[in-house]
Amino acid sequence: MDEAKRISVNVVTWNSMAYVPNLLGSLREQNTGDFTVTLVDNASTDGTLAWIQENHPEAAVLRNFRNQGFSRAYNQAISLAFSRWGDAGLDDKFVLIANPDIEFAPNALRQMLGVMDVNRDVAACGPMLLRCYMGSESDEDRRDVIRTNVIDSAGLEIRKTRRMVDRGAGQENIGQYDLVTDVFGFSGACVMIRASALLASKLAGEFFDEDMFAYKEDVDLAWRMRRLGFEARFVPQAVAWHHRRVPSDPNAGWLASWMSRRSRSPYVKFLSTRNHGWTILKNDTIGNMILHLPWWLTYELAKFVAGFFSWTTLKGEIASLAGAPKMLRKRTELKKRAKVGGAAIRKWFV
Fold this sequence. Notes:
With 350 residues, the protein is α/β, with parallel strands linked by helices.
C-alpha cells in the first residue's frame, strides 16, 4: 500500500454487506488514484469482512471483535492514517469519512481535493449528497440502485433551537445549491477533513468523542472545529449518493419531527437524546444560549414533555445529565483553546 497517497478514505462497517460492494465499486471508478481505503469492521456477522478481504485486497481492514461504535472505530482508522503519514506534510493530506451506504460519482474525490488544494484555509469540505434506494434484487454482489436527484444533504445547518438539519434535504436538485459556499459543517455520512486541522481538533485525546459511541458525534466535531476557527466548504460539483434509511426534513414541524423520532429504534433514540445534550454542553456559549433562550428552551421543554411518552427518550435525558461533569471538563479544555467566540458562531444560527 502506497503511504504517499494524500487521501485516506475511512469506512466503518457493521453488517453492511448490502451496501459495501457498491461503495467500494464506486471508489474503484474514481478518476484519481491518490487515495487509500481503510475499513474498520465492528464485528459484522453477515459476511461483510470476508467479502471485503476476498474482493478488495487493496483495502486495509481492521477487525474489532465487538461493536466499538462509530466514534471509536473511526478514531482507529484515522489513527492508522496518521501512523502512515507521520508528522510532515499534513496540510496536504486528507481524511475522508464515509458511511458504508455512500456511492461516489467518478470525479467526486478529485473535485473535493481540487477545492482543498486551491483553498488552503478551508479545513473541511463535503459533496452534494443525493438520495438513492436499492432497486431490484440482483445475483451480483453489486446491487442495482435507483439514484435520484433529490437532495439528501448540502451541508449542515444549525437552528436557534440547537436542532441540526441537512441543508436542502428532500428538495429536488434544480441548481439552487450550485455555488461553492461555506457551511456550518458536514454530516459524518461523507466529509473530507484536512489532516492538520483534524489533528489540531482533537479533544481529550480523541478525534470523535468516544463517550458518544454513535449519533451526534459528527455534529460535535463540526461545532468544535468552528470554535477552533476552522472553515467548512460545500462542493456541489462533487456528487455522492446516500442510502439514508430515515430521511431528514429540515422544514418539518416539531410534531412531525417527534413522530419521526418515534419511528427510530429505542437505542437510537436514547443515544440521539443523550448526545444532543452533551454536544450543546461541550460546544455552545453562554451568551448565545441566553440570546436564543426563547427558541431552544421551548424546543427542549417540548422534548422533555415528549419524553414522558417515551421511556427511552427520558432515559437519554437522564443519561445526558449524569454525564454532565465529564462533558464540562471537555468544555473547559475546548474553551481554553477556542479561537472563535459566540458572536462569530452566532451568524450560523437560523
